Structures are given as C-alpha cells and as structure tokens.
C-alpha cells in the first residue's frame, strides 16, 4: 500500500510540469509563443489571407524551399492546412524556419 502511494506521488510529480505547458495559442495569435523559439511572426507572414491557416502555396510563397512532403509531415491533422499550433510544432521540429523573411511583408 505504501509503495503504491509513493509510486503515485512520484508519477504525479514527474508529469505535472508537462500538463502545465500550454501548446495552444490565443485565437488572436497573441504575443506569447506557446513554445520557446517559436516566432508567431512567421505564421503571420505566411498567412496571406489572414484566415488563421496556411496552405502549401502560402508557405511556399514565403519559403520556396519547403517541399510538399515537409508540409504534409507538419500537417498533423491531415486537413491540408497548417494551423498556428502545427506551425509552432513544425518550427520546433525544424521543419519550418523560426525566423520571418526580412522583406517587409509581415502584416501587423
């Protein structure tokens, strides 16, 4: 009984920090990045129609070297679009750049 309680306490102590991290963004794509190193400006730059999602064409307009296979890997829910969370994860995984293109096209 004592071992089960200690195991449960240890498991809870080790998993609570993982639950405390947020991996979602505010609907207005707030200033805080949900993951370290993620740059919301990249999402804003790619999202040409400002609908909150980016298509392969929108990604390639900003980052022409991104191939369809990379886009598909980043598209976790396989809906043909990347949402802000998928962009952040793709950046963290090194699939998409974390820095916006410095051409003055960032909307804001």
From TrEMBL:
Protein name per Swiss-Prot or TrEMBL: EF-hand domain-containing protein
Keyword field: Signal
EF-hand domain: residues covered: 41-69
SUPFAM superfamilies: EF-hand
Native organism: Sagittula stellata (strain ATCC 700073 / DSM 11524 / E-37)
Key word Signal present: yes
Signal peptide residues on this chain, from the entry's feature table: 1-20
Example of a GO MF term: calcium ion binding
Record keyword Glycoprotein present: no
């Amino acid at each position: 009984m004592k071992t089960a309680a200690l195991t449960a306490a240890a498991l809870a102590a080790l998993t609570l920090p993982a639950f405390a991290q947020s991996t979602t963004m505010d609907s207005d794509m707030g200033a805080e990045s949900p993951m370290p190193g993620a740059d919301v400006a990249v999402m804003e730059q790619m999202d040409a129609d400002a609908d909150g999602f980016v298509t392969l064409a929108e990604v390639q307009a900003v980052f022409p070297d991104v191939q369809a296979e990379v886009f598909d890997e980043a598209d976790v829910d396989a809906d043909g679009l990347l949402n802000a969370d998928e962009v952040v994860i793709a950046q963290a995984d090194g699939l998409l750049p974390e820095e916006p293109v410095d051409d003055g096209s960032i909307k804001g």
